[in-house]
């Protein structure tokens, strides 16, 4: 097994199997999935409901240990890591973009971003500069002081993307990031995600069931019954 382990500073899943339950209730959510995503590469995972897409992201984001197989995130082998190391890995090397932004209602757009360094300790001048740079990158400089209810769905999702980039993630994971958006805004967010993945060299995986959104991806992989093709 070690001889075939891929080396990448991005994301590598090697023959990953994830099972839920046991016996009669056993579900194989991921079935020997192998996937390598290089830094700066944008991979779309498409597949029907229940095919294992969210399970793939949970494993790739070090949220769930696979039943079998290896996951490497930015050169850290997840199976060998202790809980504290995994928590640090999630906080410092992985960015998540959620379906509907997952913003805190009481915080301005800028403060949503500054919450990331705040949770790791303290906010530095460099963090403030980075937050402003990221808000500019997603086209929200003029709306940095607005709270979520003062932003459109697409704008909220842009804030979610900028927040996911705050910790300079090696791995960027997006779970149906366009679910709450109309077609035009969905395309805009995916284009922005692709551009940021490339520019910031994040190994990026976007899960979607929308085959209209695949043009922006460098690579498309299909998931069916827990298997990738
Ligand atoms: N905690 C769990 N316990 C038991 N089975 C689960 C659990 N989570 C997911 N599953 C099962 O694992 C399989 C894959 O689920 P998963 O959520 O990864 O699919 P998905 O492709 O993301 O689906 P959707 O597009 O509907 O979100 C499904 O059969 C699902 O019912």
From TrEMBL:
Residues 11-229 form the ABC transporter domain. One of its GO terms (cellular component) is plasma membrane. The keyword RNA-binding does not apply. Keywords: ATP-binding, Nucleotide-binding, Transport. Pfam families: ABC_tran. One of its GO terms (molecular function) is transmembrane transporter activity. InterPro entries: AAA+_ATPase (IPR003593), ABC_transporter-like_ATP-bd (IPR003439), ABC_transporter-like_CS (IPR017871), ABC_transpr_LolD-like (IPR015854), MacB-like_ATP-bd (IPR017911), P-loop_NTPase (IPR027417). This is ABC transporter related protein. It comes from Thermomonospora curvata (strain ATCC 19995 / DSM 43183 / JCM 3096 / KCTC 9072 / NBRC 15933 / NCIMB 10081 / Henssen B9).
């Amino acid at each position: 097994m070690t001889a075939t382990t891929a080396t990448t500073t991005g994301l590598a899943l090697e023959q990953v199997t994830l099972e839920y339950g046991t016996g009669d209730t056993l579900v194989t959510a991921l079935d020997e999935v192998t996937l390598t995503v290089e830094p700066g590469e944008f991979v779309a995972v498409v597949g029907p409901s229940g095919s294992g897409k969210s399970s793939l992201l949970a494993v790739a984001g070090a949220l769930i240990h696979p039943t079998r197989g290896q996951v490497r995130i930015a050169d850290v082998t997840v199976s060998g890591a202790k809980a504290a190391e995994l928590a640090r890995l999630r906080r410092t090397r992985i960015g998540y973009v959620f379906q509907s932004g997952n913003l805190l209602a009481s915080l301005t757009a800028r403060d949503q971003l500054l919450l990331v360094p705040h949770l790791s300790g303290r906010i530095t001048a460099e963090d403030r500069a980075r937050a402003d740079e990221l808000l500019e990158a997603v086209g929200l400089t003029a709306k940095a002081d607005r709270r979520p209810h003062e932003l459109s769905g697409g704008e909220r999702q842009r804030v979610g993307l900028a927040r996911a980039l705050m910790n300079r993630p090696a791995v960027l994971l997006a779970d149906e990031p366009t679910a709450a958006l109309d077609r035009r805004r969905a395309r805009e967010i995916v284009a922005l995600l692709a551009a940021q993945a490339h520019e910031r060299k994040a190994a990026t995986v976007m899960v979607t069931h929308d085959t209209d959104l695949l043009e922006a991806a460098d690579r498309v992989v299909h998931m069916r019954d827990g298997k990738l093709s």
